[in-house]
Amino acid sequence: LNNIDQELISKIKNCNTFISGVPGSLNIGSKYNNNSFFVEQCPDDTYNYKIEDSSKRYDTVFIGNIFGEIHKERSFFLKDSKIHHFRNIFGQAHNQLVNQTRINLNFSPLDRSGCSVRVHKILASAGFLMTTPWSGIEKSFKVGEELVCFNTKKEMQEKIDYYLRNEQERQKIANAGHKKVQTYMPNIWAKNILKYTIGL
């Protein structure tokens, strides 16, 4: 929601259609534009895909920034942990790292307004994903079947330990998440946008 400023609100008011992949920003946009719709975020299928027979080098990884007030929850969860943290990893390098990791983490904003496209990128890369929840998550994914959620640092560590010990269950969830995110890939994403903008 930090991207919702007066400039963007002015644009939302004046455009024909407002489409967002973040439920919280959609809620705000709907106040200013009656033609507001949710379209699930999509990963770039050029860079986010399963690499067959990729060997696992890392147990648990978080890819992203941890600086500033907006990311303070990330710092809290990562502090004093054995989680590998990488930043400034994009494109093919991001895909390769996800494929080399047993458990990939995501931290949603504290206001639970939505998730980063990181979620979709990890799942498209066939990565096993653990994340803090966001409002409306159950409309996009089956929690416990396509990804795993945690709310506290203790719960996060307990679930990391559990899924590192249970590879078959971890792989089953990763496969289901990978299958689900295929319904959010660019061609379908574009068709959904056209449906809401020109009625195709």
Q: Can you walk me through this structure?
A:
There is one protein chain. This protein is an alpha/beta fold and 200 residues long. The chain is built from nine helices and seven strands, in the order H-E-H-E-E-H-E-H-E-H-E-H-E-H-H-H. The strands form two sheets. Strands 4-3-5-6-7 form a five-stranded parallel beta sheet, with helices on both faces.
Indicate the topology:
Elements: H1 6-14, E1 18-20, H2 23-32, E2 36-38, E3 58-63, H3 72-78, E4 84-86, H4 91-99, E5 101-106, H5 118-124, E6 129-131, H6 137-140, E7 148-149, H7 153-165, H8 167-181, H9 186-197
Parallel strand pairs: 1-2, 3-4, 3-5, 5-6, 6-7
Helix pairs in contact: 5-8
Spans with pLDDT under 50 lasting ≥5 residues? Answer: none
Discrete helix count: 9
Strand order of the largest sheet: 4-3-5-6-7
* Backbone shape: globular
Label the structural class: alpha/beta
Mean pLDDT: 94
- Strand-residue fraction? 5-15%
Note the gap between the termini.
30 Å
Number of strands: 7
- Secondary-structure element sequence? HEHEEHEHEHEHEHHH
What fraction, in percent, of the residue positions are helical? 40-55%
User: Biggest sheet: strands, sense, closure?
Assistant: 5 strands, parallel
* Radius of gyration computed on alpha carbons: 17 Å
